[in-house]
Amino acid sequence: MTSNDTRNHIIHTGADLIGQKGFGATGINAVLTAAGVPKGSFYHYFSSKNDFGLAVIDTFAQEYDTKLDLILNDHSRSGVDRLRAYFDAGLETMTSCEFTRGCLIGNLGQELAGQNETFRRRLDTVFQGWEKRFERCVEEARQAGDIDASIDPAT
């Protein structure tokens, strides 16, 4: 496994555990055991649990941004159809885990935003990026006449 692969493996393993238990209840040792890597590997890539948590947020957000862009920027479909496709994909994801997990970023927002300003700011940036993507899609649907012209896409 390359250095970047090991880092990503730790992040993805940790994200999975955090998705199940929450950030506060997920210990570094649990992540390392599940990932099958030694403790030194963790501290080679991350200076602290908070640094690791920020990497989890950034990685998940980047991957989710790609998914959003594939759906919401698919101009072969109407804006309304793209929004429906987003919700259909979300339902499929929730069904696949038998509704036992929510959105990792949403869960972290609920758990950490009131406790840690650094996490709050990072999560807010992620949410704002997502909002802008939906706003553009709704605006395109409004411009095409697929939704009421009086709807404010930013709202």
Please describe the structure with a list of short key phrases separated by commas or semicolons.
single chain, 155 residues, mainly alpha, Tetracycline Repressor, domain 2, 7 helices
Structural notes for this entry:
- With 155 residues, this protein is mostly helical.
- 72% of the residues lie in helices and 0% in strands.
- Helix 1 crosses helix 2.
- The radius of gyration is 18 Å and the shape is elongated.
- The model has no long low-confidence stretch (mean pLDDT 94).
**H/E series, N to C?**
HHHHHHH
User: What does the radius of gyration come to?
Assistant: 18 Å
Percent helix range: over 70%
CATH architecture descriptor name:
Orthogonal Bundle
Task: Report the top-level CATH class.
Answer: Mainly Alpha
Q: Label the structural class.
A: mainly alpha
The fold-level CATH name is Tetracycline Repressor, domain 2
Low-confidence stretches: none
Mean pLDDT: 94
Q: What is the total domain count?
A: 1
- Number of H- or I-type helical stretches: 7
Largest sheet: none
Q: So what's the overall shape?
A: elongated
The number of distinct β-strands equals 0
Question: Can you describe this structure in just a few lines?
Answer:
The protein has helices at residues 3-21, 28-35, 39-45, 49-72, 79-96, 104-112, 117-143. It has 155 residues and is mainly alpha-helical. It is elongated.
